[in-house]
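User: Could you check the structure of this?
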Amino acid sequence: MSAWEVAEERARAVIGRPEHRDLGVVRAEDAAEFARAAGETSPRLIDPDHPGFTVHPLYVVSLLRGAGGADQGEFRPDGMYRDEVPGTDGLDVRLMAGGQEVRFTGEVRAGDRIGVRRVLADVARKGSGAPFLLLTVEKTYTAERSTLARVRERFIVR
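Assistant: Sure, the predicted structure tokens are below.
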């Protein structure tokens, strides 16, 4: 059985099984640094001391780990987190992003504690000559007061 076939078997076994992760508290300084790195120049996005400071909407969906980050053992040789693409941990497969849809449903604020719920929604085998998997992952980002964003990501596994 090929590595991507093992990945398919593993992924199919976890379809619909939710995972929850606490991503920690949004710090204004971190959100401002993200906005600067994204090329923003508006003081309300890059200056935490600005009276109208607001967190860049894409900041929350860029969070993959909590404030503590990750240790070296959590990374694949290609630099991705080992558990980011369901079914692929420890396998010698090629991974590519296959698209992302983001729907914002609330405003992220400095001081919000962010949680994410992730579910593998679909596993599809594609192609005939050089088959690959298309995995669809759905994420819901929340703060205590509301849902902030819903994300649908696709990953290609070959």
